[in-house]
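User: Let's play a game. I give you a shape written as tokens, and you guess the letters that built it. Ready? Here's round one.
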């Protein structure tokens, strides 16, 4: 992982809650956000659940409630972008 950090800047764009219990009742304990504050809380919960991400990710951005980034890039459900 350290070799990746030397060569890359890792940016996470939090899109949408995957498998939210109020949409896909799979029992993950996450509900879809109703506003940006809730979306940030869900993102924080994700980062707390997987603390190794904190050392890897350099910057976190949040998609809008209207999913502008998803709609512009087609980055749903999961997508990786590389840039030089």
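Assistant: Ready! My guess for every position:
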């Amino acid at each position: 992982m350290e070799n990746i950090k030397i060569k890359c800047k890792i940016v996470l764009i939090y899109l949408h809650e995957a498998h939210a219990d109020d949409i896909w009742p799979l029992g993950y304990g996450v509900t879809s956000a109703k506003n940006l504050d809730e979306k940030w809380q869900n993102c924080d919960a994700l980062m707390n659940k997987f603390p190794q991400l904190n050392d890897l990710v350099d910057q976190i951005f949040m998609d809008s409630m209207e999913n502008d980034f998803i709609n512009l890039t087609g980055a749903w459900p999961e997508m990786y972008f590389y840039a030089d």
